[in-house]
Amino acid sequence: MRFLTTTILASAIAGPVFAADPELTVFDWAGFEVPALFQGYVDKNGDSPTFALYGDDDEAFQKIASGFKADTVHPCSQMVSKYRDAGLIEPWDTSKIPNFDKIDPKFLDSEVYKDDEGVWYIPTDWGATAIAYNPDTVPAEDVASLQVFVDPKYQGRISLPDSSDDVWALAYLATGTADWTDVSDEQFQAAAEWLREAHQNVAAYWADPSEQAQLMASGAVDIAWSWNDGVTYLRADDYPVAFQREAEEGSSTFFCGFVNIKNGPGNEEKLYDFINAWLDAGTGKALLDEIGYGHTSTEAMETIKDEAAVQEGLSPVDVPILAQTPNDPAQREKQLAEFEKIKAGF
């Protein structure tokens, strides 16, 4: 089973997991070490980069901030300001990235990513966070609302991500807030109270999509707040799963990409080979098939626009959408601290 294999490998996060080309170290999400996502790099250099894997954005940041040596990291958009503020990254030289201008401009529409000093972020992939559920055990009407996560009927049968950003996106939506860039104290408290209630139903917090898929496939849980990849992994192993992106309170979207770590130990030319491979239009199909995500390249998306996985998992929906774009760093730290308390039962 693909997802079980990824979970086992991801458990070895203490250091490089896939020792391959020693001249480039990529610190990446578990599951993104699939060569089809950077096939041009393999074709040119004869091997994959060395990969170290993580399951959570904050975990990855703390490791880099503590001195872990890598050439590039794959954070989601709301994390980029933390890397910049900590002085951990440097701008990309876009003259070395021929397909940079193929990136949909909406993914660079922030001074956090692109300013007078340069381009700090190369967005590559995007997806949705919504309700994954087993249609054999959960009626569709039960997941018409995000309140399914606090329904006593499902006590011990749900899973939430061990990711502060994603659980707060869920909690804000469930309590009527679809924009986290300007959250009042009242909105924060309402979301926190809702999360405490949902915590009572949680069988497990999943650390990465492979673990979420394993929890659902084993029958341990029937409902999860999920990214596209958890659903993709389950379907690859023929488990029944549906993806509800149109709950009445809404769903969430996110995008991720690569930052250039300052004083990375590897070969800079190979770093650009890696980014250029990612931005090749052909990566769009591999990204959709392997992970279930969309590509930031308009050219890549054009090649997959008619795929069923795009229509179901990435197409526009007529409900509120909380976009996980950069928000107030102080608010984000407050959310992170509160989430840790909630998980601990306080």
Automatic annotation (TrEMBL):
It comes from Paracoccus onubensis. This is Extracellular solute-binding protein. It comes from the Bacteria. PANTHER family: SPERMIDINE/PUTRESCINE-BINDING PERIPLASMIC PROTEIN, SPERMIDINE_PUTRESCINE-BINDING PERIPLASMIC PROTEIN. GO terms for cellular component: periplasmic space. InterPro entries: Sperm_putr-bd (IPR001188). Keywords: Periplasm, Signal, Transport. It is found in: Periplasm. GO terms for molecular function: polyamine binding. One of its GO terms (biological process) is polyamine transport. Residues 1-19 form the signal peptide. The keyword Transcription regulation does not apply. It holds the Pfam family SBP_bac_6.
